[in-house]
User: Fold these one by one.
Assistant:
Number 1:
Amino acid sequence: MMPVIQACIGLGANLGDAADTLREAVEALDHREGITVREVSRFYRTPAWGREDQPDFINAVALLETSLTPRALLERLLAVETEFGRHRPDGERWGPRTLDLDLLLYGDAVIDEPGLRVPHPHLHERAFALVPLLDVLPEARIPGYGAARDAVSVLEMSNIRPL
Ligand SMILES: Nc1ncnc2c1ncn2[C@@H]1O[C@H](COP(=O)(O)OP(=O)(O)OP(=O)(O)O)[C@@H](O)[C@H]1O
Ligand SMILES: Nc1nc2c(c(=O)[nH]1)N=C(CO)CN2
């Protein structure tokens, strides 16, 4: 039996009815065996990060308890993305999508394997992930960086706002 681990998932969407998609994605995750959704952050409207020539995103974070391994959890996330008809034009990094699920934190694990990096390598520099993370886990720590609250304090935040 795997122990139960607390994990945080980042949800994002900027195509279609993004807020609806996020609500449905949380439901879909909660119905998977080995995953219990404990809390969901507020939803935020956030300007696109990385590639700015695309619509604003809606972002949120879900706090889960899971008995799945990190690899199995990531596979579930990718399956839910596919279920929601994620549209990812070939080879486009950081482009628009109907649903993006990122494994942000898995307990205090540090994992660096092909196709699986935890904590999520961009978490500490993305206000759109850190701000909702602090809603569900105000004391969150990012292994290798320290308090999530400290990471957020140096970022530009004026345009991250709850829906
Ligand atoms: N912690 C993680 N969470 C989600 N995907 C991860 C993680 N670590 C590695 N990956 C890999 O990254 C791939 C997802 O790439 P994707 O195209 O969604 O990147 P992106 O969403 O454009 O950029 P970013 O990962 O910076 O948000 C997945 O196939 C997965 O194997
Ligand atoms: N605001 C915002 N920007 C992004 C997001 C996201 O979820 N929110 N996801 C991306 C994919 O890596 C790239 N840029």
Number 2:
Amino acid sequence: MTAKTKRSPKIICISSGKGGVGKTSFSVNVATALSQKGKSVLLIDGDLGLANVDVVLGLNVRHTIQETIEEGRELASSLVEINPRFHVLPASSGVPEMATLSYEEQAFLTNSLEEIIDRFDYVLIDTAAGIGDSVLWFNTWSQINIVILTPDPTSLTDAYALIKVLNSRHERKHFHLLINSVQSKKEGQDVFTNMRMVLERFLKITPLALGAMPQDKNVSMGIRQQRPFLLGAPESKASLEIIAVADRIIAL
Ligand SMILES: Nc1ncnc2c1ncn2[C@@H]1O[C@H](COP(=O)(O)OP(=O)(O)OP(=O)(O)O)[C@@H](O)[C@H]1O
């Protein structure tokens, strides 16, 4: 692919409501899997004030999205190449004001993003936790909304709250659920069925199942080693599920 090749990327937002449920780990690894399958991927760190995609990948970041918003620096200058088919757009950490962009800043960032994304097949956004403005805005900018939840009841509650807000205030109707840290396939199915019943009953939304990631020590090891578990442990249960999820994303 040359830098000038124009594409029509699929924009995919990855959110959860609750923090610490595995968004960043999932985003980094599914981006790696898509790139291994020959797709050109941009992963945006959408946690604008408390970024960690760069940490999980062990990147040496020179410029971030913050400099585009605050100084007008060209967004393309912040792109970090992981490999020719996988780029990252890092954000800043410890900058609280980045978490709440004004309407003008959001519009400026949207325009800047739209100038660079047509080089990619997939644009993935790893959002912040919670249901703050930037989370809602990235979700409405995207075509595909992935919501990650774990079997933990508080995770279900927060995922439901996120979907409710996106549905009631932003008219989003289609959600793909990724159940993370399950002990068995059955547990993943049970959590999905439970969430689907609640969403159908109270919001008239029928979610789609994207997959169930097993609890796997290779996931936390990958984070500690600052390397995708898909590369460090390609035969692990987590890697096999990530590859299956990447195939399902390609089929969407
Ligand atoms: N499938 C899994 N098996 C084992 N550990 C996991 C799994 N998924 C995530 N974890 C662990 O959970 C922790 C949080 O993961 P991660 O940082 O990806 O979550 P997050 O949702 O991005 O967090 P935040 O909301 O703070 O951005 C990490 O220590 C990670 O190793």
Number 3:
Amino acid sequence: MNSFGRMFRVSIYGESHGKGVGVLIDGCPAGIPVDKEDFMGDLSRRKAGGAGSTKRIESDEPVIISGICDGHTTGAPINIHFVNGDTRSKDYSLFKRMPRPGHSDFVAMKKYNGNNDIRGGGHFSGRLTLALVAAGVIAKKILAGSKLNAKLVQVGKTDVRNASEKEIDKILTHVQENGDSIGGIVQFTGVDLPVGLGEPFFGSVESHISSMIFSVPAVKGIEFGAGFEGVKLKGSQHNDSIIDASGKTLTNNNGGINGGISNGNPVVFRVVIKPTPSIYIPQETFNFEEGKMDTLQINGRHDACIAKRATVVVENAAAIALADLFLINKSSQI
Ligand SMILES: Cc1cc2nc3c(=O)[nH]c(=O)nc-3n(C[C@H](O)[C@H](O)[C@H](O)COP(=O)(O)O)c2cc1C
Ligand SMILES: C=C(O[C@@H]1CC(C(=O)O)=C[C@@H](OP(=O)(O)O)[C@H]1O)C(=O)O
């Protein structure tokens, strides 16, 4: 399914090598100040071009088709479109008979009986995260009183929390020069979010955010607060003592969420992004034309580390989920 949300409803469309990609947002309140410039900062954080990035360079220029007029949202559906320019589909012709290990080629071929768009990653491409970033810019405006931020905290085995951009780039360049790829961990922190976002059980903050975050291609895991490390603590250590009437806690092992509801402390989660599947080192895969294993040599233009460009994707995807919960929460009390 290509739609997410109950109140702030986001649908994404397009293909990596089709005419373009984009987003349709329904349910956005009217009167939110937005203009084209507001998108540029976050879109440039996702943009290709730096160390470890794909060499495919797109303008990533947002075209506002509807729902924003005279510098504010109008209450009508918002459509933001991005035109694809720098496509090179011939790099992909091989993957129909020799699917790439770790990518969507095999499952898409089976699921859609070979009718899927195989130019680039088609509709499975990370390019569609451009649409999520754009929708996240508007979601953040709905959450104007809160500050949301995601940062890269680990690249492969290296903790990069205190590393400079230059040090991170050195790791990525080394991997890229070897024709290989590397994964990473992105940490999200949302501060000054109101108490009360989220619903018990299926609409919990954790389930809503996770559902959205797992929609980002290459995400393989998520943990909130102390997460998996929490298993090493006793209840007496894991419990977060409430220290004032606002609900502030001494520690934040629960990542700002109890009973599926935000408790007013920072919402914190970490996301694991796998190493990019398309690598330049020859790999063994099944050749469907010849009915035997064969050696696949991938050409084309790929990210050596998705996690770097996906940091703002995680931030804005979380914003979409939280903005939806924010609007839903407006109806929890009269
Ligand atoms: C921002 C972004 C950029 C990506 N760039 C590439 C890429 O250059 N090459 C590639 O093979 N996969 C890339 N991916 C990941 C694939 O789209 C993803 O691995 C594939 O769709 C399979 O999905 P899965 O990894 O979730 O199983 C990228 C993902 C994101 C979020
Ligand atoms: C184009 C973008 O990233 C692409 C994501 C992607 C993939 O398989 O996910 C593969 C590469 O593209 P192509 O399909 O042209 O080989 C990346 O360049 C983008 O992020 O804007």
Number 4:
Amino acid sequence: MVKLVLAEIFNSWQGEGGSLPGSTFGRRQIFVRFAGCDLRCKWCDSREYIDASGVSHWRYEVEPFTGKFEYRQNPANLEDVIKVILHLDTGDIHSISYTGGEPTLQIQALKTLMTKMKELGFDNFLETHGGLPEAIRKVANITDYASVDIKDESAKAAKNWRDLVLREIESIRILKKAGVEVYAKLVVTNETKLENVRWYAELLKGLAPLAIQPKEPIDISIARLMDIYRVAAEILGKKNVGLSFQVHKYLNVL
Ligand SMILES: C[S@@+](CC[C@H](N)C(=O)[O-])C[C@H]1O[C@@H](n2cnc3c(N)ncnc32)[C@H](O)[C@@H]1O
Ligand SMILES: Nc1nc2[nH]cc(C(=O)O)c2c(=O)[nH]1
Ligand code: SF4
Ligand SMILES: [Mg+2]
């Protein structure tokens, strides 16, 4: 039987991605948040879920936006997960979002769930750090949309940060080749270096658009954000860069 180590399932609006192609910002989604991550971004807002061994239960919304949850023990059964997703289907669901933690760490279970959701008529949106291109390859042909983070040096996500960025680019290449609508997301901080932004933009040129997302809570200055944007646009082209904010946090929804 297929098992998944999950954190939560809920129904909301996609709050990130801005207006770039590949973004599903503002669309209704059912979010499936996987537990466990192999990176340690210093500003991660899902920190309580990145050590999977500490996530004994997953929770699911009883009804959308009620704030009422029920809890089940991990690992979850695929059948229960599908039942919960279908119960949360409000009839206006654009796509199912797989996030985390890092969903691609449980690639076999993720692939089974994504395949099942396609069979049930849903589109798949993958939110990933992209650091595992070999895993990405296994789900590329059942993914409709993907947001792949490029981890900035200031995130201090991993020891070999440059290698991580190159793997993220490789994941984007694999997704694009499979026909996925993919964009890259860069979370920027007041420590983000312009020379690094130039490097990411060179790597992404001709490959995917870039959403620049200020780290929350926002402390980067507007002047700095403008500099980062301009440097990226000079290399990627004016139409291939945009801002993204975590709008769900302003709405106070999940
Ligand atoms: C929690 S991560 C899970 C998916 C995957 N592990 C990743 O990092 O892409 C979901 C998204 O939230 C973003 N994020 C997490 N914490 C953030 C923060 N404090 N400010 C802005 N974006 C944040 C991540 O960069 C990522 O794009
Ligand atoms: N509404 C909403 N939009 C989101 N976009 C990315 C999210 C994530 O944590 O992956 C997220 C999330 O947790 N909630
Ligand atoms: S990769 Fe994603 S889940 Fe993992 S620590 Fe970074 S932001 Fe959090
Ligand atoms: Mg989030």
